Amino acid sequence: MARRSIGAVTGIGETDYTRPHPGRSALSLQLEASLKAIADAGLAPREIDGIVIPGGTGPVVAEDIATNLGLPDLRFSVVTPLGGAAAVAGLQCAAAAVAMGVCNHVLMPLGRTGRSGARIGARLAQMPQFRLVGEFEAPHGANAPAQYYAPMARRHMELYGTTSRQLAEIAVTTRRHAILNGNASMTKPITIEDHQASRMIADPLRLLDCSLESDGGAAVVISAAERARDLRAPPVVILGVAEGHPDSPSTITQRPDMTRLGVAKAAPRAFAMAGVTPADIQVAEIYDCFTYIVLCQLEDLGFCAKGEGGAFVEGGALGLGGRLPVNTHGGLLSQAHMAGMNHIVELVRQLRGAAGAAQVPGAELGLVTGYGDLGDGTVAIMAKG
Amino acid sequence: MSDAIPPKPRPEPSDDTRPYWEGVAAHRLLLQRCADCGRVRHYPRPLCDACHSFAVEWIEASGRASVHSWTVAHHPFHPAFKAELPYTLVTADLPEGVRMLARLRGMGPEALRVGLPLRIGFEDNGEGLTLPVFRPAD
Predict the structure, then answer these.
(1) What residues of chain B score a pLDDT lower than 70?
(2) Is residue A40 included in any domain, yes or no?
(3) A359: in domain
(4) Where is the ChsH2 rubredoxin-like zinc ribbon domain (chain B) (predicted)?
(5) Nearest-by-CA chain B residue for A200
């Protein structure tokens, strides 16, 4: 089947996620990941002529990267907003730039000091996308993503009978994948009972429903499809990519249907662009800031109907050999919180056939999502080139 | 002292939102209604998203509400609220057609269910800021 690609991911790079990195800045970590990604592509740093910075995920700007890498001919730089949806939004942005010929090789780096630096509750209040909730919800004691998202999960449970044990299935499977990865923060197996015994954070979300706060860096290089063939690594092509915003994007409280995320609007466009359906997807890296957000996205992406996510994830369905292997690297829940850049890296590994013990046999078509801020969603469908 | 507890987050009212906070301070829950098409909106903002009119009038809410969803906070994401844990944050539908988030008072979370009637009250947050709260319906 002839499929039209709009760009290719030609390089991937990551730092060590197994330990904290005290004394290293977010910039330093993402420069390390950047050099690895550029080398993986078989490029020299001076050949990078585009930079996409996923916004809302760190303090770094394109000028920092260009200065440190000594880029002689930077032609394109943008910051994509959307927090956890920003990395996949950056794929869209970079693919558009290389497809237009604005530049040839776009570097998209991300680095965080979530473990050694400021914690999430302190960072959130500084972000303009949280202005309305900052004025009208934070004074009541709603101060962190877990507290903003928990009512979505509670409503889903009340309407559809979704259970905490079903959320636990996602945590347990994701941990199992992290253990296979070799570069994951969390390496101890967990059970559904461990999840049920973990302390409550924001009911119904328990500790093991929540993602990590991590130190590290991850980066990818996006190149024009026709240039990708000449590079070192087997190309992984972007077939479809889309961004979607939920109704009432500034506050979940006022959302007409708080069980429907922005990715519900993006997914049909991405699948149509790629010319494939959810049934064709062999591996999915789904943004997992919280277990519930995975469950809800599976519905909104069309893998099952609204309300059926709980049943869909039961019985290890998201594990290797299951109906849809999800977060084969361990995700934000158990590998590291790299705001979804590690999800893109993992999908590329899977489609290169280089995912080691977590390889989905014969994977040629996969999907990666982002979820950010108060429900913004992005999705990219990629294939072995 | 390095471990001093910071103050609770306080609203910084803008020209768009000041009437709401002045209302709350006077124990009145005021909502924006479009003066052209009549659509009620919340949280306060400059433009009607239905007809794009800037003309606005403020109406007082009935005080009735019903549960849309909720969460019980157990983890201290903000140190100023640590002493109040656990507390329940309710998202409720107002009959005026908008929603509101506030603390639950006068009952525990166990009896909450979607659609449960509540009524809106007001209380001081302990730092001189009046906030709306939800109480059991009479």
Answers:
(1) 1-3
(2) yes
(3) yes
(4) 21-57
(5) B74
pLDDT at A228: 83
Closest A-chain CA to B18: A135
Q: What is the CATH number of the domain that holds A44?
A: 3.40.47.10
* Each residue's pLDDT tens digit, A235-262: 899 999 999 999 999 999 999 999 999 9
pLDDT at A1 over 50: no
Q: Which residues of B touch A254 (CB under 8 A)?
A: 42-43, 98-99
Number of domains forming the structure of chain A: 1
Q: In this complex, is the C-beta atom of B125 within 8 Å of any C-beta atom belonging to chain A?
A: yes
- Which among A104, A97, A91, A2 has a CA at the least distance from the CA of A348? A91
Contact B68 A125 (CB under 8 A): no
Say if A142 falls within a structural domain: no
CA angle A385, A335, A153 (to 5 degrees): 100
Per-residue pLDDT at A326 exceeds 60: yes
Strands (E), A6-153: 8-14, 50-54, 76-80, 105-113
Q: Which domain holds residue A261?
A: 8-117+210-384
* Out of B10, B101, B125, closest to residue A137 by CB: B101
Domain limits, chain B: 11-60, 62-138
Interface A–B counts its CB contacts (< 8 A) at: 105
What are the distances in angstroms from CA A54 to CA A81, A108, A221, A313, A385?
7, 7, 13, 30, 25
B97 touches chain A (CB under 8 A): no
How far is A385 from chain B, CA to nearest CA, in Å? 44
Q: Would A258 be classed as within a structural domain?
A: yes
Q: How many other β-carbons are positioned within 10 Å of the β-carbon of residue A234?
A: 16
| pLDDT tens digits, A87-139 | 999 999 999 999 999 999 999 999 998 887 766 666 676 778 888 999 999 99
Contact flag B89-A142 (C-beta cutoff 8 Å):
yes
Q: Does B5 touch chain A (CB under 8 A)?
A: no
The tens digit of pLDDT for each residue in A265-321 reads 999 999 999 999 999 999 999 999 999 999 999 999 999 999 999 999 999 999 999
Q: What is the pLDDT of residue A114?
A: 83
What φ, ψ does residue A343 adopt, rounded to 5°?
-70, -40
Contacts of B103 in chain A (CB under 8 A): 140-141
CATH code for the domain defined by B62-138: 2.40.50
Chain centroid, CA A166 distance in Å: 21
Whether residue A251 and residue B43 make contact (CB cut-off 8 A), yes or no, is: yes
